[in-house]
Write a structure and sequence with these properties.
Strand 7 and strand 8 form a beta hairpin. This protein has 7 helices and 8 strands, in the order H-E-E-E-E-H-E-H-H-H-E-H-H-E-E. The chain is α/β, with parallel strands linked by helices. The chain has helices spanning 13-19, 59-67, 80-95, 104-110, 122-135, 140-147, 151-163, and strands at residues 26-29, 32-33, 36-37, 49-54, 70-75, 138-139, 167-172, 180-185.
Length: 188
């Protein structure tokens, strides 16, 4: 994903502890490692954003990971859109560093306290966000054609995502007539 750089890869607990010297901002943590459980690393990862990616889905493990500081938990197998969503959320959390004060609206958005607007499917919204992240700025018409939606449906989702602060709208002057809007995924 744009703007992220891999600084290290570790295939064991021992290698992961050595890799912490690189002071990563974000750690993608698997729990099944050849020499132990990745959850044992959580205390050493204080100060880093931790995204658990694992096949472990039993409730005690999930609870231990989240209470231990993981910002997100993804169960294998997973799709690219789910990973992209987690990385977008990581960027949103990192953006707080640049604010003097955090509003309740910021917190609600980051902690996913706000449900989807009535009549909008969260899966479709995530598909649109993923499409924008790959394609750049697109009009509602271009999103509709690219994803097989009606123009009105694409516009409704794009405007809802804009109101939530997940996409930005900018004027688009494509030809004669009135200008339209181009929407871009907000890369915080």
């Amino acid at each position: 994903m744009e703007g992220l750089e891999v600084v290290g890869v570790a295939g064991s607990l021992e290698a992961a502890l050595r890799a912490l010297e690189l002071a990563p901002d974000l750690v993608l943590l698997d729990l099944y490692l050849p020499d132990g459980n990745g959850l044992d690393l959580l205390p050493a990862l204080a100060g880093a954003y931790v995204l658990v990616i694992t096949a472990a889905k039993d409730a005690p493990t999930v609870e231990r990971a989240l209470l231990g500081g993981a910002m997100d938990y993804i169960v294998k197998p997973f799709g690219r859109a789910r990973l992209r969503e987690a990385l977008t959320r990581y960027r949103a959390f990192r953006s707080l560093r640049h604010k003097a004060a955090v509003s309740q609206e910021d917190l609600d958005r980051l902690l996913a306290r706000r449900g989807s607007p009535k009549g909008l499917d969260p899966y479709t919204a995530e598909r649109i966000l993923a499409y924008l992240a790959e394609a750049g700025a697109l009009t509602a018409e271009e999103v509709a054609v690219g994803l097989g939606l009606s123009r009105v449906t694409a516009w409704r989702y794009l405007e809802a995502l804009r109101r939530e602060g997940r996409v930005r709208a900018e004027p688009h002057y494509g030809g004669p007539g009135r200008p339209s809007r181009a929407y871009r995924a907000d890369q915080v």
